[in-house]
Structure formats: structure tokens, C-alpha cells
Specification:
355 residues, 9 helices, FAD/NAD(P)-binding domain, alpha/beta
Length: 355
């Protein structure tokens, strides 16, 4: 049997599974999915899990069931491209004929001393659970620092405010204004929400060091009871260890078919792939759609098209607690209750389409 091995059960590989199963997989091919958990985790909602406004059950869905799909649970230690196998932490080796690397990312600490030791994360469901335990266990009046005011930091800060109105929340932003690459109207709406809900946005910040219960912003020291890091990502270690050509963010360079340039049997999807757009669930799913088409042509010994369609993203949706939100869609800004309802609707549809 030909083996298609999918590394990681994130948005990209989940879409590949749903497109190939049950009827689009050749009879001589099986799929092996390797993931540390027995379910697909909706990473875009980890901020709510960490803040305590969503349960573990609400941020995951089951993988599809099929006699053509085998699930392998555990940690990946090494990807051996030469021998075409994946080495697991427990010593098992999983051989492949075609491989899709969709292992996602981990926090990037930018060489800030203490950041990896003394901050919490929302990059995995396990780390989000630990962050939840810490944040919800803090006493009234405690100070929480959130380093990084991108979409994850914004949503975590707003959700935590609704979960714990008794906490002092400080959101550290390197930029002069929140979401500086988007229309000022969007930035002003988000900043006004934070002002009205007593979230302190520290603009033009530069965290230079983290110690237990202490943040260094430029030359200033700020006492904190807990710090959550949302200030950058990088591909996970097994991908970085491959030593492949990468972009400035460490993402692996791929060709137009989402393959390694020198290995047509290895695809890279999601946060590990070097593309001109910022990593997102939407981007991973669009990549996955194209990878499926390439795989189907390859399996039938059909020629690949001279060029692949350009990936066009619809925009993004963000929440500010359970009642307000913001969106940037087709170069248009939407704010308030409507934007929040749109995000809730997209989440509901995603769960419905994934069973």
C-alpha cells in the first residue's frame, strides 16, 4: 500500500482528510495521520480556552473515521527525508511515500532572556490548558502582562477581561497603534474597547527581559503576576532541524505546488510554509485544497498545470469578548456586534462541516 503520511492534525491536514476521504483516495493508498492528540484542535480559539470562557470540548472536533485512515499519537522527534520516514519519540518509525508537513508553530522569543522560562503560551491545546490554570488561579487584583498585540494578544486580552474583571491587564504592543497595518478606524475601535474596559495598552513597547514576576520594558521594570507570550511564532523544532531553505521567519521555502523544491513527494502546509501572506487557518485550508488537487493528479500520472491559481484570502475576523468584534474583509472594515456575529457564524459553520 502506498502511504500518505500527514504530520499534524491542524487546519491544513484536516482539510486534506475531508477532501480525500472517503471517496477520493486511490484503492492502493492509505493515510496515516500523526498528531499528539486524538482530535483536531481549533487553534484560533485557544485564547478563549486560556481565558476560561470556552471549555476544552468547545475548541476541538473529532478526526474523520475511515478504514483507510490510521491515527498515530505521540511526539515527532525527527523527519528523515533521505530514508522517507518519521521517527517518533517512543522509537517507532513511520515510513511514507508522500508526506505533508503540517506541524504548525511554536512561540518565537526573539532571544529575550527569560521569555521561554517565565511566560505562558497559547500555541497548543496543552499549553493553553496550563495558561488557563494559572490565569484563573490568580488572586483578585493580580497583574497579567500579555506580550504581543497581534490578533491572538488582542483576543486573549479582551476575553480575559470578560472572564476576570478583577485582574489588571497590560497588553504590550511594539507598534505606535494596535493593528497598525490596517485602517486606522479598525485600530481606534479596538483601542476604544480596551480603554472602556480598563485594559492598559502599552504602545511602543520593547520587552528586553523577563524575570519571575517582573517584565523589563525598555529601561522600565513592571511587576507582574503572570505573563502570556503572543509576540511571534516560528516552525516547530523538527521542521527547523531539517535545515531546509527558509525565509526570514524560518518558514520552509516551497514551490508553486507546495512541495519542497528538490523533493516532489514532500509538501508543506500551514505555519511551516513560506508564503507571501501571514500564517492563518484560512491560508492553510486554501493550501490544502491545492495540495489535494496536486496529489490526485500525481497519483493518476497526470501532468501538473503550468501554474497554480493564486491564493486569495477573504480577510480576517477578530473578537472583543462575546459581544463585540472587528473584521477586515475585501478591504472593508466591519466593527461591533455584526463582526462578532460573523465570527461566531464562521466558527459554527466550521464545526458543522467538520462533523
Amino acid at each position: 500500500m502506498r502511504k500518505l503520511v500527514l504530520l499534524g492534525g491542524g487546519y491544513g491536514n484536516m482539510r486534506i482528510l475531508l477532501r480525500l476521504l472517503p471517496n477520493n483516495l486511490p484503492l492502493d493508498t492509505e493515510i496515516i495521520l500523526i498528531d499528539r492528540t486524538p482530535f483536531h484542535s481549533m487553534k484560533t480559539e485557544f485564547y478563549a480556552l486560556a481565558a476560561g470562557t470556552a471549555s476544552d470540548h468547545e475548541v476541538r472536533v473529532a478526526f474523520p473515521e475511515s478504514d483507510r485512515l490510521s491515527l498515530v499519537h505521540g511526539e515527532i522527534l525527527e523527519i528523515d527525508l533521505e530514508d522517507k520516514c518519521v521517527l517518533m519519540e517512543n522509537g517507532d518509525r513511520v515510513q511514507y511515500d508522500d508526506l505533508v508537513i503540517g506541524l504548525g508553530c511554536e512561540d518565537k522569543y526573539h532571544s529575550v532572556p527569560g521569555a521561554d522560562e517565565f511566560t505562558y503560551s497559547i500555541q497548543t491545546i496543552g499549553k493553553s490548558r496550563e495558561t488557563f490554570k494559572t490565569l484563573l488561579g490568580l488572586p483578585s487584583g493580580a497583574v497579567v502582562g500579555i506580550v504581543g498585540a497581534g490578533l491572538s494578544g488582542i483576543e486573549l486580552a479582551s476575553e480575559l477581561r470578560e472572564s476576570r474583571r478583577d485582574l489588571n491587564i497590560k497588553l504590550f504592543d511594539r507598534s505606535p497603534r494596535i493593528l497598525r497595518d490596517f485602517p486606522e478606524r479598525l485600530s481606534n475601535f479596538v483601542k476604544k474597547w480596551f480603554d472602556n474596559h480598563n485594559v492598559d495598552v502599552v504602545s511602543n513597547s520593547n520587552i528586553t527581559k523577563v524575570e519571575p514576576n517582573l517584565l523589563y520594558n525598555h529601561e522600565e521594570t513592571i511587576p507582574v503576576d503572570a505573563v502570556v507570550w503572543t509576540a511571534g511564532i516560528q516552525p516547530v523544532k523538527p521542521v527547523r532541524d531539517l535545515g531546509l531553505e527558509s525565509d526570514s521567519s524560518g518558514r520552509v521555502v516551497i514551490n508553486q505546488y507546495h512541495q519542497l523544491p528538490n523533493d516532489e513527494h514532500v509538501y508543506v502546509v500551514g505555519d511551516c510554509a513560506a508564503l507571501p501572506m501571514a500564517p492563518s487557518a484560512q491560508l492553510a485550508e486554501e493550501q490544502a485544497e491545492q495540495i489535494v488537487e496536486v496529489l490526485k493528479l500525481t497519483w493518476r500520472d497526470k501532468p501538473l498545470p503550468e501554474s497554480m491559481p493564486e491564493i486569495k484570502l477573504k480577510g480576517f475576523l477578530g473578537s472583543l469578548g462575546k459581544k463585540q468584534g472587528f473584521a477586515y474583509l475585501a478591504d472593508r472594515t466591519v466593527t461591533g456586534r455584526i463582526a462578532r456575529l460573523m465570527k461566531s457564524g464562521v466558527l459554527w459553520m466550521y464545526k458543522w462541516h467538520n462533523g
